[in-house]
Amino acid sequence: MSTASERDAVSLTGSKPTLSPELIVQVAEVAPARDLTYQEAVREALREAMVRDPAVFVMGEDIGKHGGAFGVTRTLFDQFGPDRIINTPISENTIVGAGTGAALVGMRPVMEIMFVDFSGLAMDQICTQAAKLRLMTGGQVKVPWVLRMPQGGGAGKSIAAQHSQSLEVWFAHIPGLKVVLPSTPYDAKGLLTAAIQDDNPVIFLEQKFLYSFRGAVPEGEYSLPLGVCDIKRSGRDVTVIASGLMVWYAMLAAKILAPEGIDVEVVDVQTISPLDRATIGRSARKTGRVVVVAEACKSYGPTGEWAISAMEEAFEYLRAPIVRVTGRDTPIPFADSIEKGVWPETEDIVAAIRSTMAW
Amino acid sequence: MYRRMVRIREFETAASDLFRRGAVKGTVHPYIGQEASGVGVCLALRQDDLIAGTHRSHGHNIAKGADPAKMMAEILGRETGYCKGRGGSMHIAAFETGSLGALAVVGSGIPLAVGAGLAFKLRHEDRVAVPFTGEGGTNTGNWHESVNMAAIWSLPVVFVLENNHYAVSTKVDDVIKIKDLSERARAYGIPGVCVDGFDVVAVYEAAVEAVARARRGEGPTLLVTECYRLEGHYAGEPEVYRTRDEVKEQWKREPLARFRADATGAGWLANADLDAIDVEVKQEIAAAVEFAKNSPAPDPATAMDYIYA
């Protein structure tokens, strides 16, 4: 019997362009007219939401003329002006708290914190205030805001320990928040649109290395459901559960292993919280083998939650122990030679899949 | 004015009694001694102006017009409370009478008022947002970030700083170098006003001016009300950090007696009028306690309600 979320996930896969390994290889090649980068897709979602809904405004540091640290809001200031693209002082906690206050009186603020690493300055407003207001007021209010934060690393970024972390579990541990981490331009636009329309505080994490990745993105507003995993590749033999950049690596691993007759299913956990355990369970029951992959640190990281969810949902179907592929438990070092070694690579995923297939 | 102050006093007295007798779980932070501050400010506001509260906000809610029965039900953890028993004493927030929430981490409610003020300004509404905090809260980053942000954008916010002289056990002199806290306004380029927080009329007059300024679009004001926390940090707290004599001395200035003396002295009201208000409010609070006690507790099956909208 399939649940609603399973049906959604399946139909979603059927109705959207599939992320193919070829796309990854051909990133630099000339794209079709409606190919956008992940960064452009985020910007388009913001632009279309602001055109449609006067309650939507954007607030953050250096997001005006400068366009933000990663250029996401570039051109929006010229289009919407300083009342809707609001440059703030360096006051992360009050940026978020003010967003909450505005949301309480009917606005739909989208805040940007320059790097997720700086969210530590705003954790009180995010986790202790916004996330709890609805419950502790007995449902008198809702807090419809989005907090966009770039996170993670990627080959050759070299921005060291305080600008490279993957912190989705900080927020996923707090009931009342939703946490989203899209892997493709298509998902980035659709999920951000959904996040802006959602009536809850949504943490929207953007993997920095993905900003330049291209993919097909439809024109006009569309939203993808929050709270469901997306099957990026359907397969028979082993389930790889991943999110963000790791989805692309998992797709590459699947491509590498296909000639050997190993058919990999890739489950993209694009909403980290609330977690769609039904889709994880369905896939694990189908393949009987599970590999979990995240850029975040191993200890108490997202892979632990995904692995135990697979076990809870599919224990009697599992034919091999679940294998983890994760970032190492260290602050991110600067030098390229050692930075490389702390994040999972495609070959780590390939090795993990082979090990689980060997059982 | 007097009625609201008495309502706060009686409510806090009843809530503290219930807490000491074990009928109220958790904690109760009484507002006794600061009634003139909350009432003076809130009477200067319209119903659609908003206040952001703290862990000590029973008084702010009552001052803004909240129903003591629904408040008492909240404190007793009943489904009929403002927050359906999900918030309790520290989080009572009557949104129907213009609250932005009561946030019990010191300083954390202040940015919410900045955001509400920002929304009012963006939508060209002439409403005002008022965050309450104590002198303890002005040492948080929230306060400084918020005052600065409201100042640079000329937001319709009146920052009310109730100097009750103690942050739990820590005396104001030990943690703030300046004597007149309204001087802090100067650093942010906004007006700062300091008034006698025992004198409800003085607070009201200062608040009217600050609120009018905000409504005219001229930006925020820092309004310091010099108060004193006559009860412990929470009801029944041992208060080892101050002498009984010090507290006794401050009781001589308490705001209800102060108003009585002023009102009868100036001939605004007779003692009999004020006595009648006392009696009526006592009955009202007794009825509120009865209402709360007779209300149902939340159904355990609803424990997971209200997490997401």
Q: Secondary-structure blueprint of this entry?
A:
The complex is a heterodimer of chains A (359) and B (309).
Chain A: H1 4-15, H2 21-25, E1 35-37, H3 38-52, E2 56-60, H4 76-80, E3 85-87, H5 92-104, E4 108-112, H6 123-136, E5 146-151, H7 168-172, E6 178-180, H8 185-197, E7 202-207, E8 214-216, E9 230-233, E10 238-242, H9 245-257, E11 264-268, E12 271-273, H10 277-287, E13 290-297, H11 302-314, E14 323-327, H12 336-339, H13 346-357
Parallel strand pairs in A: 2-3, 2-4, 4-5, 5-7, 6-7, 10-11, 10-13, 13-14
Antiparallel strand pairs in A: 1-8, 6-12, 9-11
Chain B: H1 2-20, H2 35-42, E1 50-53, H3 58-64, H4 68-75, E2 99-102, H5 110-122, E3 129-134, H6 141-152, E4 158-163, E5 166-167, E6 170-171, H7 172-175, E7 192-196, H8 200-215, E8 221-226, H9 244-251, H10 255-266, H11 271-293
Parallel strand pairs in B: 1-2, 1-3, 3-4, 4-8, 7-8
Antiparallel strand pairs in B: 5-6
Helix pairs in contact in B: 1-3, 1-11, 2-3, 2-8, 4-11, 5-6
* Rg on CA atoms of chain B, Å: 19 Å
The count of helical stretches of chain B stands at: 11
By CATH, the superfamily of chain B comes out as Thiamin diphosphate (ThDP)-binding fold, Pyr/PP domains
Strand content of chain B: 5-15%
Largest sheet of chain A: 7 strands, mixed
Average per-residue pLDDT of chain B, rounded, comes to 96
N- to C-terminal distance of chain A: 29 Å
List how many beta strands of chain A DSSP finds: 14
> Which whole number gives the mean pLDDT of chain A?
91
CATH architecture of the largest domain in chain A: 3-Layer(aba) Sandwich
| CATH class designation of the largest domain in chain A | Alpha Beta
Largest sheet of chain B: 6 strands, parallel
Which ranges of chain A are low-confidence, i.e. pLDDT below 50, for 5 or more consecutive residues? 1-33
Strand order of the biggest β-sheet of chain A: 3-2-4-5-7-6-12
CATH architecture of chain B: 3-Layer(aba) Sandwich
Oligomer: heterodimer
